[in-house]
Design goal:
Blueprint: H1 13-17, H2 20-31, H3 43-47, H4 54-59, H5 68-89, E1 94-99, E2 105-111, E3 114-121, H6 132-152, H7 154-157
Helix pairs in contact: 2-5, 5-6
Length: about 160
């Protein structure tokens, strides 16, 4: 299989919101919404918390614990990466997030015994991207790298 995830380049808002990766994040958020609160919310509203400007990041203290909402945002991001890798390769992908109370840790996406994505998390309290476009670009980069590894080492995935 070849990767269908093309890197996102400058797009207008409507094209950007049709990005398979951004749609996957919105899908993950809705899937983990036990009370159906987000069922009718537009994707743009669900993705809004992922946009954190540099000025906003400076205002967020890294002294305290990582709040559960931010932890959920991080998990939804990496689950969307895993989902898109799964769509493109057909291989079941899983996510593990190990995050300390100080905001340091790891995000891992794996398939079988193959580690597809490994990211160090620092200052997780400030998790976010400058724009939706940068969010989509980062997700697409991780997906492309994961798909490449999955295709390169299929025997490790299936063990």
């Amino acid at each position: 299989m070849t990767s269908n995830t093309a890197p996102v380049t400058t797009l207008d808002a409507s094209e950007l919101l049709n990005s398979p990766f951004l749609k996957a994040i919105a899908q993950q958020i809705r899937a983990n919404d036990a009370y159906g609160t987000y069922r009718n919310w537009p994707d743009e509203l669900l993705l809004k918390p992922y946009v954190v400007t540099k000025a906003q990041k400076r205002e967020i203290s890294v002294e305290g614990e990582v709040d559960p909402i931010t932890q959920g945002r991080i998990l939804a991001f990496y689950r969307a990466v895993a989902y898109q890798i799964e769509v493109e390769t057909g291989a079941l992908s899983q996510v593990v997030i190990d995050l300390s109370h100080e905001g340091f840790g790891w995000a891992l996406v794996f398939s079988g015994r193959l580690l597809l994505v490994s990211r160090t998390l620092r200052d997780a309290q400030r998790f976010g991207f400058e724009s939706l476009e940068k969010l989509a670009i980062e997700g697409d980069k991780l997906i492309a790298a994961g798909v490449t590894l999955a295709q390169r080492f299929p025997e490790v995935r299936t063990l």
